[in-house]
Amino acid sequence: RTFLIGEKPDAIINIIGGTNLERNLYLTTQLTELGIPVIIAVNMMDLVRKNGEELNIDRLSKDTGCKVVEISALKGEGIDQLIQRAVAIAKSRKNIQPAHKFDGCVEHAIAHIEESIEPTVGHAGLRWAAVKVFERDERAIQEMHLDSSVLDHVEGHIVDCEKAFDDDAESIITGQRYDYIAKVIQTCVKKK
């Protein structure tokens, strides 16, 4: 996390296991919030096919907002294509916007947090920083050097969401990420 935020790489290759998309796409949602271009390499595609499943790569790309390449690291398949696409994405220098959105009041709170912290944090990685403030991630907040008056100002929006969902902020974000991932899997994966 420190490297991604501090060094701001040109692109991220996010290697995920095709046999357990739900767990692996959670990290993808977090990475896309950084604004850094992400290419997803779906590994173990040979096992996915062997299990009788089909993965719609074009739909996965559309739903995640990332380029997607099928690979099999064990067999060395798709690696050259992955490298070529990663280099092309890195050279494009285009920041990305995450494809996933949170429910109404959460999205409203995050937008308000973004507006409040942008003078201190800057635009790069602003979405990620706002989500961390929403989650009350102590380490991330400390690294942002936010004034306590800013945190006090946005706290009311966070509390309103917690009341609306009857849950704590971090659990709200986690739950909504998994809801989004479930929808992605439902549209992208066909089982026998």
Describe the structure.
By secondary structure, the protein is mainly alpha-helical. The chain is built from 10 helices and 5 strands; from the N terminus they run αβαβαβαβααααααβ. The strands form 2 sheets. Strands 1-2-4 form a 3-stranded parallel sheet, with helices on both faces. Strands 3-5 form a two-stranded antiparallel ribbon. α2 links the parallel β1 and β2. α2 crosses α10 and α4 packs antiparallel against α10 (169-188). It is globular, with a radius of gyration of 18 Å. The protein starts with a helix and ends with a strand. The mean pLDDT is 91.
Shape: globular
Strand order of the largest sheet: 1-2-4
End-to-end span in angstroms? 38 Å
Structural class by sheet pairing and helices: mainly alpha
Portion in strands:
5-15%
Helix and strand sequence:
HEHEHEHEHHHHHHE
Q: Number of helix segments?
A: 10
| Mean pLDDT over all positions | 91
Largest sheet: 3 strands, parallel
For the secondary structure, the number of strands is: 5
Low-confidence stretches: none
Instruction: State the helicity in percent bands.
Output: 55-70%
Radius of gyration: 18 Å
